[in-house]
Design brief:
By secondary structure, this protein is α+β, with helices and mostly antiparallel strands. The protein folds into three domains: about 80 residues, Pseudouridine synthase (2-Layer Sandwich), CATH 3.30.2350.10; about 130 residues, Pseudouridine synthase (2-Layer Sandwich), CATH 3.30.2350.10; about 60 residues, Archaeosine Trna-guanine Transglycosylase, Chain: A, domain 4. It is built from eight helices and 18 strands. Strands 1, 2, 3, 4, 7, 10, 11, 12 and 13 form a nine-stranded mixed β-sheet that branches. Strands 14-16-17-18-15 form a five-stranded mixed β-sheet. The protein is globular.
């Protein structure tokens, strides 16, 4: 049993809670999720089963799209509605054009400071654990990418925006930083993840629906293939000695033209189209070395 599930996480449980539910439902020890959603948030939560857990990081490379509700005039210590209110300020008269102008500097590649209450680890502990213990937390800024910021609705003090961004972006920090730019403070009051790479909310299953599907013995109908996160990578068909070389973790010499020039990564498949390995090109683009190997029938796979 391996592949991906596109789940619609409800508000309330943590991402880890959902993984635990799936693990118990399927009696499968190897289950993971791609891209943590805070308890407040809902929407697309990719779930990997079996060897698919080794590909979750590549699924997270795809674009993420969120619908965020931001409450202006109220600051919280967690930058969202779960935290304690630290200050309240009047919201200045703002029109849609004012908000769009305030959001514009957040577009593109920016330096963003994560929230103090975040899952980032420092010296073996999550920052939220340190913050809850009363420690002063100052997360270092990180480089993130925001591709699109669209105002969907504005009814003071509630602003709803749609955000398309890259991995590692904190929408809570965006809400907080917008409030600081406007001078009145703000926090994230609601968040729905609409998309992670090829997974979209309109196709996602709720945990209750998943349980029903499993009870009816129809899991195979909704299980997405293990190579879903890398299907856009160039494919190289291998067989015979080449196939065995990859299973042994050895690099391949690939003649020019079989993998398009300029590509740094590719996937190797057997003649039946099954994923065998993920490849990384060497500097001369002739030698391709496996860095993930998926041996047939190997529940754990191997790393090259």
């Amino acid at each position: 049993m391996e592949g991906f599930l596109n789940l619609n996480k409800p508000a309330g449980p943590t991402s880890h809670d959902i993984v635990s539910q799936v693990r118990r439902l399927l009696h499968l020890p190897r289950v993971g999720h791609g891209g943590t959603l805070d308890p407040l948030a809902e929407g697309v939560l990719p779930i990997g089963l079996g060897r698919a857990t080794r590909l979750l990081s590549f699924l997270q490379e795809g674009e993420k799209v969120y619908r965020a509700e931001i409450l202006l005039g109220v600051r919280t210590n967690s930058y969202d509605a779960e935290g304690e209110v630290t200050a309240e300020s009047p919201v200045p008269p703002l029109g849609r054009a004012d908000l769009e102008a305030a959001l514009a500097p957040f577009m593109g590649e920016i330096e963003q400071v994560p929230p103090p209450f975040s899952a980032i680890r420092r010296e073996g502990r999550h920052l939220y654990q340190r913050a809850r213990a009363g420690e002063a937390v100052s997360p270092p800024p990180r480089r993130v990418r925001i591709d699109r910021l669209e105002v969907l609705s504005w009814e003071c003090p509630r602003l709803v925006v749609e955000i398309a961004c890259g991995s590692g972006t904190y929408v809570r920090s965006l809400a907080h930083d917008l409030g600081e730019r406007l001078g009145c403070g703000a926090h994230l009051s609601g968040l729905v993840r609409l998309q992670v790479g090829p997974l979209r909310l309109e196709e996602a299953l709720t945990p209750a629906t998943l349980a029903q599907v499993v009870a009816e013995g129809r899991l195979a109908e909704i299980l997405l293939p293990i190579d879903l996160p890398v299907r856009h990578w160039p494919a190289l068909e291998v067989s015979g000695q080449q196939l065995q070389a990859l299973l042994d973790g050895r690099a391949l010499v690939v003649p020019p033209g079989l993998i398009p020039a300029g590509q740094e990564r590719a996937r190797a498949c057997d003649p039946a189209g099954r994923l065998v390995a993920l490849l990384r090109g060497e500097s001369d683009q002739a030698l391709w070395r496996p860095f993930r190997v998926f041996a047939p029938g190997d529940a754990g796979g191997r790393s090259g």
